[in-house]
């Protein structure tokens, strides 16, 4: 990484408060000094310049949630961001990524076509040699490998999905690109993959000389207004205070829906991002029942026949959100009440994409319309990594490296 001590404006002091204060001392560091204002921000910061800065490679980049958190961390520390490589298989996700990171070299490709699946760290393939030369020096390598097979919500392929082998690509990419730091994000169930891919990846990174730490992170603790827990692996070749300390630096009071989306309650726009889906006749009747009876959970007799006798395990399905609480985990089903507790707290509709994006901690300047359809937008937002998560680790790694 560049010598941050020589870059003007790259001090690690917080905008407000004490960055290194424990949770008991109050609100920790926030993006641009205020998470609340960050989410409502309309103008894109000037992330890229020709000056000294941070070099980022994002594998399995999706729409760019991890990249955005790192971009904002670099911006808050006075650094420009360079992204010589961002990769994802999904064409719509890459379109959204390119639309928001116009300075990045983002490509649609299979990551497994770029990096060998070999766990023998000897010779590079021709493709890997070309990639190393093209990308150059890398400060931070990040990735959120496909997680469907790890998710506890996926009963069919739980923890035994062939896509899980892509997780090890992160170790191979570390061997090829030799980054200073690595951040890997996934669902908690990844630890229990039947082939032990997470532990194999950690062992490989240690073999390459990285100090590796793994821990679960509850995102409500760092201010994300939804109940979401993720597995984080941080690998670095320099000293770092670790995952727990990073979380402590950025701990906030739990945020609720009112904090996150109350101001969007009556937003009027023809944009796909700001218009709700149109529920079926039966679901509209269910939404009306919730409001007419001032309740948040739909009684069994109003549910479909398959749920009518309490034959369901998720009470939140067909439920109404509460202003006073965080949302449930945002998934690609947020447009439909039959996919979870996604009915708006005070309006007879489900969440809009912009509201779901806010709950995923995307600011208003981040645009999703390039995806082209409501279905594609929902998938991209539901699969995204909340930028606050990568922000706290990138910020901490940069500061630890500087000090």
Keywords:
single chain, 403 residues, alpha/beta, DNA Methylase, Chain A, domain 2, 2 domains, 7-stranded mixed sheet, globular
Report the span from N to C terminus: 13 Å
When the domains are counted, the total is 2
Percentage of residues in strands: 5-15%
CATH architecture descriptor of the largest domain: 3-Layer(aba) Sandwich
Radius of gyration: 21 Å
Q: What's the β-strand tally?
A: 7
How would you summarize the topology of this molecule?
Elements: H1 35-39, E1 53-59, H2 65-76, E2 80-88, H3 91-100, E3 106-108, H4 111-114, H5 126-135, E4 140-143, H6 169-177, E5 181-186, H7 197-207, E6 211-218, E7 229-236, H8 242-249, H9 257-261, H10 281-292, H11 353-359, H12 374-383, H13 387-402
Parallel strand pairs: 1-2, 1-4, 2-3, 4-5
Antiparallel strand pairs: 5-7, 6-7
Textual characterization of the structure:
The structure is a single chain. This protein starts with 34 loop residues before the first helix and ends with a helix. Mean pLDDT is 87; it is low at 1-10, 13-25 and 148-164. It has helices at 35-39, 65-76, 91-100, 111-114, 126-135, 169-177, 197-207, 242-249, 257-261, 281-292, 353-359, 374-383, 387-402, and strands spanning 53-59, 80-88, 106-108, 140-143, 181-186, 211-218, 229-236. Helix 3 (91-100) links the parallel strand 2 and strand 3. The longest helix is centred in the C-terminal third of the chain and has 16 residues, at 387-402. It is 30% helix and 11% strand. With 403 residues, it is an alpha/beta fold. It is built from 13 helices and seven strands. The radius of gyration is 21 Å and the shape is globular. It folds into two domains: 4-255 and 385-402, Vaccinia Virus protein VP39 (Rossmann fold); 258-383, DNA Methylase, subunit A, domain 2 (DNA Methylase, Chain A, domain 2), CATH 3.90.120.10. Helix 2 (65-76) crosses helix 13 (387-402) and helix 6 packs parallel to helix 7. The chain has a seven-stranded mixed sheet with strand order 3-2-1-4-5-7-6, with helices on both faces.
């Amino acid at each position: 990484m560049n010598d941050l001590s020589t870059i003007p404006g790259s001090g690690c002091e917080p905008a407000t408060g004490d960055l290194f204060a424990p949770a008991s001392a109050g609100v920790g560091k926030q993006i641009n000094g205020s998470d609340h204002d960050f989410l409502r921000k309309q103008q894109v910061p000037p992330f890229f310049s020709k000056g000294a800065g941070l070099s980022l490679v994002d594998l399995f980049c999706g729409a760019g949630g991890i990249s955005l958190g790192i971009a904002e961390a670099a911006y808050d520390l006075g650094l420009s961001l360079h992204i010589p490589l961002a990769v994802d298989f999904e064409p719509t996700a890459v379109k959204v990524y390119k639309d928001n990171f116009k300075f990045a070299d983002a490509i649609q490709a299979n990551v497994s076509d770029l990096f060998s699946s070999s766990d023998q760290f000897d010779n590079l393939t021709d493709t890997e040699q070309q990639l190393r030369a093209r990308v150059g020096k890398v400060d931070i390598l990040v990735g959120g490998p496909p997680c469907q097979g790890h998710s506890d919500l996926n009963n069919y392929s739980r923890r035994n999905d062939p896509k899980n082998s892509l997780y090890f690509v992160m170790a191979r990419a570390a061997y090829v690109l030799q980054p200073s730091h690595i951040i890997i994000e996934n669902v908690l169930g990844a630890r229990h993959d039947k082939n032990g891919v997470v532990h194999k990846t950690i062992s490989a990174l240690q073999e390459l000389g990285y100090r590796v730490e793994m821990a679960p992170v509850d995102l409500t603790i760092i201010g994300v207004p939804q109940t979401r827990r993720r597995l984080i692996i941080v690998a670095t070749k320099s000293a770092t205070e670790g995952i727990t300390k990073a979380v402590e630096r950025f701990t906030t009071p739990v945020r609720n829906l009112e904090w996150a989306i109350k101001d969007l309650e009556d937003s009027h726009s023809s944009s796909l991002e700001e218009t709700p889906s149109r529920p079926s006749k039966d679901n509209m009747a269910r939404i009306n029942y919730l409001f007419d009876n001032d309740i948040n959970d739909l009684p069994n007799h109003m549910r479909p026949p398959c749920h009518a006798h309490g034959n369901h395990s998720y009470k939140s399905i067909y439920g109404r959100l509460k202003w006073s609480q965080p949302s449930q985990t945002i998934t690609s089903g947020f447009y439909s009440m039959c996919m979870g507790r996604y009915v708006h707290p005070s309006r007879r509709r489900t969440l809009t994409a912009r509201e779901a994006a806010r709950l995923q901690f995307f600011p208003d300047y981040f645009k999703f319309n390039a995806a082209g359809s409501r279905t594609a937008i929902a998938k991209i937002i539901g699969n995204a990594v909340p930028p606050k998560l990568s922000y706290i680790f990138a910020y901490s790694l940069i500061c630890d490296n500087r000090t």
